[in-house]
């Protein structure tokens, strides 16, 4: 019901090409998910914390935002508007004040990160890539998703990737079957979901586990015990990527690795334009097995 | 000449023949009707719920190939040795006294074959039961009949009984016919007298005292075995929250369809909540305390089929308990004994005078000749078969809903056929997104 | 004499130490210091040892005692010696509610007064109270003997079965189905033994005996008011 892609660059020199490579992979997965598309990209560290914002009325919502927000939180902020999105940089300690500021505005906070920015919208992957200029973005790694909605609404907030903590994001292909009790439990532990989407619950679960001291690997192992249903997850953190499939592993997944990169796709054709793919080691991730690649 | 047209005899909807018969019986005897079993009136029940199987947006699991686990652990919150069960269906507390020794043995044998636990009752622990039950829950009741530290320590769990669904707030009155020499000896009572059980515990009242009582029981048993608290469904939110705060490992909620060996009919039919209505408030209490799953919820009262088991679990139970259904599986109310039921003025399927001890099936009796009719080994096999069917049915439904463990069933997997059931189970009316009483 | 100090040792460790004793140990004399109202102290003992608790205790001290002799050199909270099986429990001070509740055997001696529901649902225990007892004493008492040197509160022996009640002082009121009964020689003999074992300075002839009228043993509509 969805297409997912991920790319982790091992070679520094490829970083300027990350956006172009990932965009191409994403567009290749259009048939699997025509409703909406999104990408999370881990670029350079900003001067402070980066918030990616979205508004359905960006012309009004983002007009004079830098001044208004700066005054409200008592700090200097910078605002970079890209179509319906804006990336705001502000001092770390002002994030709670900023959340307060946005709470009664026609603006949604989609992510917060040192390096991560998230771009996602309703529409075809091609149109999403184009409107945000994803092809020209640089970074160390990123993940992307094309969505065919199942039980929750086709909205920007319902699009993947979901981010539920600093520099953490998740894309999912499949359908969970025990997310409702988990959603209620996590809400009581401070991870209140913004949408009815099952994937957001999985993202919150990973954030909760990592926030409670688990490593990325341990948190991914936890999904095998605590999440039911069908899933292939690709998780992004500040350091790298993780992949896990449920024990039944019906939802497709294929991986490719060279000396330059590790790539993930729902289908092999997502890799077709990657450099050196013909010589890459290509394999399908095993069921109920956690894989991750992290910068040291 | 033609007759004048006449009105037909018309029965009152209020004063039905059954009502009038009961008035005449009361007038003749001066005593309320005492009987066994649970509420017989129709109340909103699991039958009013349906599962939403997987189709396009969810994926089902393959039957028999892809695992759908049924195991459940009860009591890991504080107990060093929690109760590990292979299936989420346990046998509810039924006393030796109410039941014959053979019936208790059959329950123990059948439950052990199925990998689950049995529960003692108001009357102490018998060797038949301890010997044949791999997992035995020892009830701690207001009467304390037969209570002793040796049995406490050889139990696999303790169930502090605050109330039961058939009579929340009530004690008991077992008429003298069943107080045989052995039953009397176990209960320190004279043989053949009416037995009046207290409605409150003799040495504690309320959750603040209960916390200390639980401490005492844990100190006596070295914190080894779980402590359950059983309540009759009445105010399930508060009762569950208070049991959990008092330190229970497991909360057992028994709905009004749950049976009893002997209580006033007026109590059985008019006090307490239907099982369906009790589960969500109890689960909500555990969620509000952040204790769901850490404190397990066991639900009982009118569970008959795997569908009932699956629905109770979907609404939030960790396991269910069966009593009446287990007795039927052993042979209670079997039409094979119809002539004898007729002789008792009743019919197979309706016999509920368990307190009189004249059960033709030999289950709810202390008469040695009647009790000898029940072969404990054959009856145990029937119980095991039945428990297996309950489990298979539960798994079938869970797999259809895409669950690799039956505990992952959720309220969101259900819809309701009636407005009443939708409101009580807090699930949408079938085909709508409307949950009565839910505020958006 | 071995010593356990609750100021230094947890309740769990104190109880575990006392519970681990068995009939073969030479360490038969123990004292417990600083109880300071602790609950569930010296519960579930199962050996002929002697424990002296140097102070007052909370709920359920000596609960389910078997064989042990436990002296509380202070007062005891609710449910002291509840469900005792055998052995002896002596309270030098007063006992709160439910003293000796549901006890099956052994001897409970309260040197001071006992509060309400003393001997509730007793099933064979002997209880001797040197002072007075409160209301609802021996409610639904099934077996055993309750001896009170002082006065009793209201509703003594309500719904009583076969327990025997001996009172030297006044009885404020009797509960349902409880009546005064004849003091026969065997009762005087029994009472003399209990008084002696409890160190009570009284003679059997000073007491009156109460027990069940057995009117509630079989339901009758004309007794309905008692239910």
Fold and architecture overview:
The complex is a heterotrimer of chains A (296), B (440) and C (227). Chain A is of the alpha+beta class. Chain A has helices at 18-28, 58-61, 65-73, 95-103, 125-132, 179-188, 198-211, 216-226; strands spanning 2-9, 36-42, 49-54, 78-82, 85-90, 108-113, 116-122, 141-147, 162-165, 168-176, 229-236, 240-245, 254-257, 261-265, 281-283, 290-294. A 7-stranded antiparallel sheet of chain A has the order 7-2-8-1-14-13-15, with helices on one face. Chain A has a 5-stranded antiparallel sheet with strand order 9-10-11-12-16. A 4-stranded antiparallel sheet of chain A has the order 4-5-3-6, with helices on one face. In chain A, helix 6 crosses helix 7 and helix 7 crosses helix 8. The mean pLDDT of chain A is 94. Chain B has one domain (34-410): Aldolase class I (TIM Barrel, Alpha-Beta Barrel), CATH 3.20.20.70. In chain B, the strands form 5 sheets. Chain B has an 8-stranded parallel sheet with strand order 5-15-14-12-11-8-7-6. In chain B, strands 1-13 form a two-stranded antiparallel sheet. The longest helix of chain B has 25 residues, at 376-400. The termini of chain B are far apart. Chain C has helices at 11-19, 185-197; strands at 2-5, 29-33, 50-53, 69-72, 88-91, 107-110, 123-129, 143-148, 164-167, 178-181, 208-212. In chain C, strands 1-2-3-4-5-6-7-8-9-11-10 form an 11-stranded mixed sheet, covered by helices on one side. In chain C, helix 1 (11-19) links the parallel strand 1 and strand 2. The A-B interface holds A 1, 150-151, 174-175, 177-178, 180-181, 184-185, 188-189, 228-230, 247-248, 250 and B 54, 56-59, 61, 66, 287-288, 290, 292, 316, 401-405, 408, 410-413.
